[in-house]
Design brief:
Elements lengths: L8 E8 L5 H8 L14 E9 L5 E9 L6 H6 L6 E7 L3 H5 L1 H11 L5 E6 L11 H11 L2 E4 L8 H19 L8 H9 L4
Parallel strand pairs: 1-3, 1-4, 4-5, 5-6
Antiparallel strand pairs: 2-3
């Protein structure tokens, strides 16, 4: 007798302006080496890995890494369609990327409401070029009611801690609400099989 075991999958999307370090954050989180010469993402790329959760459940975590260029904006937002959580990144050394957080949030909230969102300020290692203070970033995060971490992909600072905080939050919410957000249905299962990994 065969047993049909449903695979648990949690999908996240990572958004933000170009060159804020989204791909480097994903690479470090999924165990790849930091690449000083990382090129800009075109379209979207999928990263995935299976994690053992605190209740001993295996959970496949997928992050859709999206392009930050304006011409790919619609594609980036499209990645949020099946996401149970969203990561918004900005560059601590570039104030424009910080100012654009609200634009990304407006687009997300106008299309996908009630989705947990994590805010990451990246390039913490570049202290001399820093343009956004911790106080300024913390204040905005508090106003927007977002959990916030300052990260450095280069030094691997707070990458796992920050993203796993979102993963755990979404996972606990899914179990608490007893919905099937993290269980692939037949349609999603087929689409995942067609997707190409990074």
């Amino acid at each position: 007798m065969s047993v049909n075991i449903k695979r648990k999958v949690l999908k996240l999307a990572i958004l933000g302006d170009s060159t804020v370090g989204k791909t480097s954050i994903c690479r470090v989180f999924f165990g790849y080496e930091f690449d000083e010469n990382q090129t800009a993402t075109l379209g979207q790329v999928k990263f995935e890995k299976i994690f053992r959760m605190s209740d001993n459940e295996n959970l496949k975590v997928i992050i859709w890494d999206t392009a930050g260029q304006e011409r790919f904006h619609a594609i980036a937002l499209n990645a949020c369609k099946t996401a149970q959580g969203i990561i918004i990144c900005f560059d601590l050394t570039n104030h424009k990327t910080f100012d654009n957080i609200k634009f990304w949030l407006d687009d997300i909230n106008n299309t996908y409401n009630d989705v947990p969102i994590l805010l990451l300020g990246n390039k913490l290692d570049m202290k001399e070029e820093r343009q956004i203070s911790n106080e300024e970033a913390e204040k905005l995060a508090k106003e927007l009611n977002l959990e916030y971490f300052e990260t450095s992909a280069k030094e691997r600072t707070n990458i796992e801690k920050g993203i796993m905080s979102l993963v755990n939050k979404v996972y606990k919410l899914s179990k608490k609400r007893k919905h099937k957000n993290i269980t692939l249905d037949e349609r999603t299962e087929k689409s995942v099989k067609k997707e190409k990994c990074c």
